[in-house]
Each structure stands twice: as structure tokens, then as C-alpha cells.
Amino acid sequence: MSTGPAAARFGRLERRGLLLGLSGPQVAVVAAGLAIATGAVYSRGAGGLVVSAAVWLPLLVAGTVSVAGRPVVAWVPLLAEWRARRFLGRTTLVVSTRRVPDARTLTLPGIPGTLMVTAAPTSGAALVLDRRAGTVTAIARVSGSGFLLDDAVTQDRKVAGWGRVLATWCQQSAVVRVQVLQRAVPGGGDPVRRWWAAHDAGAGSWADGVVAALVANVQSSATRQETLISVAVRAPRHLGRGLRPEAAATLELTLGALGEALVGADLHLDAWVRPEALGGVLRRAYAPDAAARAETAPVDLPVRLPGPTGATEEWDRLRTDTAVHAVYWVAQWPRTETDPGFLRPLLLAPGARRTVSLIAEPVPVARALREIRRGKVEHAADAAHRVRVGQVEDEATRAELDDLLRREAELVAGHGDLRFTALITVTVSTAAELAAGCAAMETDAAQSLCEVRRLVGQQGLAHAAGALPLARGAL
Question: Which residue numbers in the chain have pLDDT < 50?
Fold first, then answer.
């Protein structure tokens, strides 16, 4: 009797607060409103309370009400930052195409400062140095042997192998962040035509003519799936003007060990992205059609600009050279147990041009245990406050506490701890197509039992974190 693969279970989005589910800023705003109301009552009585309502009532509303899943007090700094960036002109980027950019540096929208690029001494992998973040990132092209058509035993083995890969990364103290990025890129029919052009014997038979006609009808607009894994490790100290050869060699040993760990999950590391190919990989996140045309040209065309020649960040979208992007955050994973292939509608939607990025940050065991202890104390304090005010504990609070206890038990048992963030980038050619593309993605996310939220006021940062394979920190 065959059984299905082992079910996957996810923790709930933590909503703990300082007091009765309210965060520190919310408690401060509510306390200020109550203080003003109390002072008005003591000084002027009921009339003073009514007169001062114009002050304390908005404070109470701002401290207790949420809009689009975000407390009102959390909207204030976001709106202020957005207005300031627009006023200073930091939402628009224009790059001159007259001068040839330095291949050793990268200036990209959404990333402060300049990134430096160097080559690893042995593998030739492109090492992207971010001085501000203190990280060095390498990008690997990865392929697998399939998953959805495997039997339950094989799927369980591959899932367990991927878990061991994550555990290996957790044990590497030098690893800061790991990003798994899968995207649909144009040019799905081009490899077929190239293979046929190289292997066609030109016999002129009936079968040869049929195959040639089929290959000729393959649409150039067809998409193909591309999977990249980026690993960000801590940059060595005393960098000077760049990575020293001995430091690069040490980092390469770490990357080699991480690459070998992929074999246990039936994954194949096709190649590390080299400096000369880095521009094309990054360019595809901004102008996928142009990048695909450059790849399929009869002669090799160097990518002069890895980033866009122009970018405009709007409240809920990012415009680049020939594309419009909208970035979503996966706010809630499936709340019930589900099969490991639950992301199939999101990843394999036919004709959809989107990028799904999973960012994992290893959390040291000591810090994770401190967070768990603090969370347990907050739950106990909230429970005591609810008893005093007569508030009934809801099922969501109990489920969150159960997740916290399960996480503690797994840490005590020797497992690692990772903080996951998932970002989904929808890419279309024109602004008129964006609404349809976003609606299709939201439908596929609902089929995957995921709750997604469109990020606003920070699309530039979100695109850099979710669409670029640079293992950037989550928002």
C-alpha cells in the first residue's frame, strides 16, 4: 500500500507584543493618549475630556488600529521615509551609457553604496563584496532531477537531504545568509533551436522535415526555469582595497564545502557564476527580454550595464528599462500540514514571469534560545494581563505558543534554527499588464495556501532583496 510523502508543517507569523499583543511603539502611543485624557479629566473635568479628544482619540486609534495588516504607528515612519526619499530624488536612477562602467564595481538601485567584484582564485566564481553589509556573496547555478513525478519515498529522501543541506549551512559560522531563487526567464525555445541547428544532419527525410517545422514553430517568448543559490559569508577584516588572495582562497574552501552538501539532496551544482557572466545574471532581473536577446545573439554580446539604464520607484511598483515589477512578501505559510510540493502553482505557472526568492538566515543557538525564553515570558505576562481584564485567550495565541515550544524542543534536540523570508517578484512588460500579472500570482499563492502582501513604499529595496541573486538581507 503506497502512502503520500511526509507532510510539511510551518509555524505561524509571530504577533507577540509588549502588552496584550501591542508592540512597544503602540503601548507608548496608547499610554500617551491615556495620559492626556486623564490629565484633561483631572484639570477640566468632562469638558476637558471632550475638548482634548482631538488629541487623545487619534493617539488611541493610532496605537490600536491596524491597516492592511500593519499597525498605524508602523505606517508613520514608512510614509515619512518615502516622502523624504521622493523629495531628495532618491526614487529615480539614471545611468549614462556613454562611459563604459568598471567591471569590478556594481552600482544597483535599492543597494546603498558600491559593490566590488573579484574572481575566486581556483573556481573563478564571482565574489561580490559588500563593504557596508560586511559580506561576500557567490552565486551558483543549480539543477535537479525533478520532484513532482517522484514516488513518495524518493520525495521524502530528497526533502530529508535538503534538510541536511540547511543543517550544514547552520553549522557554518561564516555563513550569514543563503538565498534560493527560482525565476521564469524568456528564451525557453532557444535552446531547442540551438540543439537542432547543431545536430541536424540535413538528410531531407520526411521525419527530418517534420521535426524542423516543429522546432521552427517553437515560440521565442516561451519561458524556462532558472534556479540560483546564493551564499553570503562574512567578509574578512582589514579588507583594504579588496579581497586578498589568501582571504579569497579561504572563502572558496567554505563555498566548496557548501557546494558538496548539495549532492545529498540530489541537486547538481552546474557552475559558479563567473565575473564575465555576472552582468547577464543581474541584468535579467531588470530587463529579462533584453538579456534573453543578448544570450541568443549569433555573436557574443558583452553586457555593459548589469543594472538598468533607468529606474523609477513608485509606491507599489518599480519601473526599469523595459519592464515593470511588483514585489510581494509571503506573510503566512500554510497553516495546515501540506505536502512538500505545495509551491507548485507559484513556481510552475505557465507563461508567468515571476521570481520566487527564499532567504534563510542561520540564527545562533544561544540567540535563538534567548528569543524563545523572552517569547515564553511575554506569553506568560500576556496571559496574566488577560486574566486581570477578563479577556479570553484565543486559539491563535495558543497555536503560537505551541509553535514556540516545538521550536525550543527542536533546538534542544540538536537541530539548527533558520529565519526564513520569501519574496515574490511579478514582472511584466508594461504597466497595463501589471494588474493581471499580480492577480494571477495572488490566485496561485492562494492555491499554494500562502498569504501574500504587496510591499509599498519600499519596492526598490524589496526588488534588490527578492529579484537579485545577491543574498541581501530581508526587509
Answer: 1, 297-303
- Which letter, b or e, does each residue of 133-165 get, where b requires 16 or more Cβ atoms within 10 Å of its Cβ? bebbbbbbbbeeeebeebeeeebbbbbebbeeb
User: Residue 425: what pLDDT?
Assistant: 96
Give the Å distances, CA to CA, from 385 to 20, 165, 391, 393: 7, 43, 8, 11
Whole-number Å distance between alpha carbons of 406 and 417: 12
Cell of 119: 574572481
pLDDT of res. 466 = 93
Flag whether the pTM goes above 0.90.
Answer: no
Q: Specify the long-range contacts of residues 151-155, CB closer than 8 Å, at least 24 apart.
A: 151/2, 152/2, 152/3, 152/4, 152/5, 155/5, 155/340, 155/341
Other beta carbons within 10 angstroms of residue 106's beta carbon come to 23
Q: How far apart are CA 29 and CA 25, in angstroms?
A: 6
Cell of 120: 575566486
Q: What angle do CA 97, 103, 104 make, to 5 degrees?
A: 135
pLDDT at position 300: 41
* Residue 171 CB neighbours (<10 A): 10
Give 29's strand partners: none
Please write the tens of the pLDDT for every residue from 173-232: 888 999 999 998 776 566 666 766 777 666 667 777 777 777 766 655 567 789 999 999
Beta bridge mates, 139: 230
